[in-house]
Amino acid sequence: MGAPLFIVWRESIEALLVIGILYTWLRRENLLTLKNRLWAGTALGLVLAGILAILFYVAGTWFAGPGGEWFFTAMMAVAALLIMQMIVWMHHHGASMKHTLEREAAESLQSSGGFGIMLLAMIAVAREGSETVVFLAGVGAQQNGASLGMFILGGVLGFILALFTFWLLQKFSKIIPWRWFFLGSEFVLLLIGGGLLITAFDKAAAQISAYDLPEWLYSFMDDPLWSTSWLIPDNSTLTGLTGYHAEPSLMQVVVLAVYWIAAIVLCNRKPAKTAVRPPLKVT
Fold first, then answer.
1. Residues 30-57: pLDDT tens digits?
2. What radius of gyration, in Å, describes the C-alpha atoms of the chain?
3. Which of 8, 112, 147, 232 could potentially form a cystine with 158 if both were Cys, beta carbons 3.0 to 4.6 Å apart?
4. Percent of residues in the chain assigned helix, strand, coil, to nearest 5
5. pTM for this one?
6. Membrane-spanning regions, if any (predicted)?
7. Please, is 182 exposed, middle or buried when counting C-beta atoms within 10 Å of its C-beta (0-12, 13-18, 19+)?
8. Domain ranges of the chain
């Protein structure tokens, strides 16, 4: 229940932040007559995310046998990479998100009126909702056999907690900066993403182990490097949240190291500066 709760909590806060920015912009510009368009776009975005969730659920029930294993393996890998991509994007563009949304809202209003505001809200909420669905699909595949009721309960509690956290951050934003929230939640999301990627590689290794492979490859995938079962057993909350194994193989250590190194490098990479041509001089 921990991973679904955290994912829904974090992504819901981001969606609430987007809606809050758009609503504040409408109020500042004396355009609250268009707030119904904002709510309509929000509702449509949630519907689109819900449709995607249904499609994932149906696809998961259709696949069986080796095909199903590869499907869920791909889902976990995609979710892990999408988590990294989202974190890198937020790291570089989070500070300008408010300005960007307000500019897009002004452009949408000028070009399409109230429909443009509704479309902007729908796309923004659908994007956040789709990310949540993909993340949860990956976690669901990772926690194969877990209670569906507990999974849903974690999501519901995550949303309720998100409402309270959003109110708290808005009310005490001078004491608790939004940047602290994003940095802390990004760290935990990377833990979850790394766990998803490890589990994806484990499932892939289990599938290809049926073939005749070199002995060193079996050792790379299966032989444990150390054991922390006396301190962190495989059934602990930490392992359930991050996918950590008490007796990790070299493959698992390498996968996790590459994932974190890639995330750190991409987050700290400076965006390329576009060269500006000097103005032409007329003589």
1. 988 899 999 999 999 999 999 998 888 8
2. 22
3. 8
4. 80, 0, 20
5. 0.81
6. 6-26, 38-64, 70-89, 109-126, 146-169, 181-201, 249-267
7. buried
8. 2-268
